[in-house]
Amino acid sequence: MLVRSSKFLSGKRSKTVSEHEQRQFLVKLAVFVFALLPFLWAGFITLQVHQRGDAGFSYELGWKSFKIMRVYRRLNPVYEGDDIKFIDHHTINEVLGSCINRLKKPYKGLVTIERKGKQLSFRLLYRSLSWRGYLKVCWPFIFLALFLMVIGLVVYTRAFSDQPSGLFLACHIIFAINIINDIGLHFGVQSPYLVSLIFIIATLSNWLGFSLWTHFVFRFPTEHQILKGNTFVLSAIYLLPPLVSILGAFYFAGAEAGFFAWLQRIRFWHIPPVIALTAYRNWITFKRTKDPYIKNQLKWLLLGGIIGIAPYFFFYLIPHLFWGYSIIRFETTLTFAALIPISFLLAILRYRLMQIDEIITASLTYVLLLAGLFMTYAGTVLVMKKTLWGNGILTEGSFVTYLVIIALLFDPAKNRIKLLIDKAFFKDRLNYRDLLHHYSQKVAATLRLSDLVDLLIKKIPEDFRVSRACVMILEGRRSRLYPKYLRFGIAPWSQSALVEVLKNEETNYIICEPEKAADPRLAMEMEEIIHAGYLLVLPLRGSKSFLGMYFLGPKLGESLYTLADIQVLTTLALHVSFAMENALMYESLQNSKQQLQEIYPQLLQSEQMARIGEMASIVVHEIRNPLGIIRSSAQYLVEDLNSIESSKEVLEFIIEETDRLNQVVNNLLDLARVKSPSFSELYIDELVTQILDKWEKSSKHNPAVIITQTGSPGRRPIYADERQLRQVFLNLIQNSEEAMSEGGRLNIDFSEDRKNDGITVTVFDTGMGIAEDIARNVFKKFFTTKQNGLGLGLAICQQIIEAHKGKIGFNSIPGQGSTVTVWLPRKPHSGVGGLW
Questions:
Q1: What phi, psi does 470 have (nearest 5°)?
Q2: d(CA 65, CA 112)
Q3: Among 23, 182, 193, 287, which has the highest number of CB atoms less than 10 A from its own CB?
Q4: What digits encode the pLDDT tens for the residues 471-497?
Q5: Boundaries of domain holding 395
Q6: Within a domain: residue 195?
Q7: CA-to-CA distance for 368 and 540, rounded, in angstroms?
Q8: What's 734's domain CATH number?
Q9: CB–CB of 470/489 below 8 Å?
Q10: What is the per-residue pLDDT for 832?
Q11: Is the alpha carbon torsion for 782, 783, 784, 785 positive or negative?
Q12: 3-state class of 668 per DSSP?
């Protein structure tokens, strides 16, 4: 039953997912088709124009006449500023309404123009239009329409779900249609049908576009209360512009047949209230909001609105409303108006880190500079013409002189204007260059961790105008948070998703925005950090490891972190990282020093006791066995006094074990007291030969071992203690033979070291050898691999050789044998060093 239920739920879920995917596909398809409308309309206009041809001039629609704005080819007797009064003997009103009135007369190309109060009628001439000529005229409109479409689609695909990106895209598509619509007016007068269609599309796109704009303004950056659940207001936004325009046209036209002409005039009347409403809404929201993100968005809107809408409003719209024609061409206003969608694009997508204050300062600076240049040039030329040389002032020399003066004054004027704007609007702007220089030096000179932490959580936030700061230091699985009273973090920081992200060297900072985090763990940690009062996280990376994080709260004054802030703070965090690495190393050294000072006496005492205990255990072991043998032998003698032969054998055991005990005691005494060598002149090869002669005759020699001597130490003597060297070489020979219990070869080689004025004696055997880890310890006291060894033989040998200012080394290869190398200086008292 559970399996069936699971299958049922899974099927239901998959069905829901499938329906959601289908819905998303349909939405994307609808958006794609809607986005093609401007270019479909452009295709229709292009076909109409190519059928008729090019008359060589552009014009704009008016309510009394059509004004010729530009003449780019002399095909017809028209000039810029001429008014077209009639087309095929039809009035402007009849032409604008020809689609609705259905004028069926074929277009003959007859026009009547008015120039300086006189009328002139003629038939327009048209030239066939090539694609190159067509694109040369209309490419700015296609480019601007495509530009609006791209901005709309970028916002629609990349904006957050709570932003009205759909309204933004729809608004831009409609405005793109309006721009494309103007192409039909740039190749001369076409048929009344096309002119009327252009007029209708322009009117409808004007109404719908500004209604969508008004709707968007009420929802961005925050939705106005008046729209929430109020369908009446929403309906009024879309219905009022056409109703007011249509009813106004009926009212003013009256009994005259001028409805379409009046509609052409008053279809723009709703635009000034929309512009005023947009400016008022953004300004009031900017003054009232406390959210720095919204403030940054509104700064973009105000900047783009002021620069982008002013030329259109004052030089195109107002003249059109009152005189029927504009002062500048429509495409000129579009150049400035392009700043509006750009500002909205940045307000929606890039309002977090952009240096909006600096951009505003730079924009206002250059606008004022350009205005000043235009006014000074026009004023200078006017004064010169009126008072001095007349037209003679307008020479190449005077223009070059003006350019030189501007070149000299431009930069000082720009800096002065920028300073005045900063003082007027941005009084609290920080001097990051001085701050970074000051704190880089201060951080580099700080060695103690406590001083560095105090600098990070008190001084730096205060001077950088940040509300608060804290430092997290990570040491393996252990973490330290300063100030110490802070407690935040839902999991151990060593397992933090935030730390995993910051360990990536490409991530130089993180601004806590849980809604943008793809990892749920990271989103939860960001919410925890925001709840603790922090916003920006900077990594502290050492040269070898990740040291921790530097948390910064929001900036004071309700402003956001900009790119300049981030760049300076990340650079400062880099300096802090190196300083913290040094501070942590210094702290570790201080702690180690303190601990050593505390435990050194204890360690010294413990080591001494350990050595005493180790020596005591070995001595006890070495002495107990002979004592046991001696005791048992004495007891045997007590019990069996009659056997003289057995008593003799037992007494030999007692003597042998007593000698062994004496040797143990002597070794301990030799180790305990460091005797200075008694130097005398001797020949090392002769000494070794004497030792070998006695050794081969003793009972301890193994006849199966063949002993050889090779090489020569030279005929010069050395200075050494004969008795001590005899003990060394006898010990080495005995050790080598013990390693060859079944026989082998023992070779003693002599060589002269003229460079260092010394002699090298090498003792090599073919025994079994020992492993490398054991060979490293052969000279340590009490270290032995023998069952009955005390582990002092080689230690004493090393002590003797070093007392002669010589060196002794040991090398062994398992299965091949061992080699002991002894180097002795000829004159130890001269202080000549050794080979090693």
A1: -150, 160
A2: 10
A3: 182
A4: 988 887 788 888 888 877 666 777 788
A5: 365-425
A6: yes
A7: 44
A8: 3.30.565.10
A9: no
A10: 40
A11: positive
A12: helix
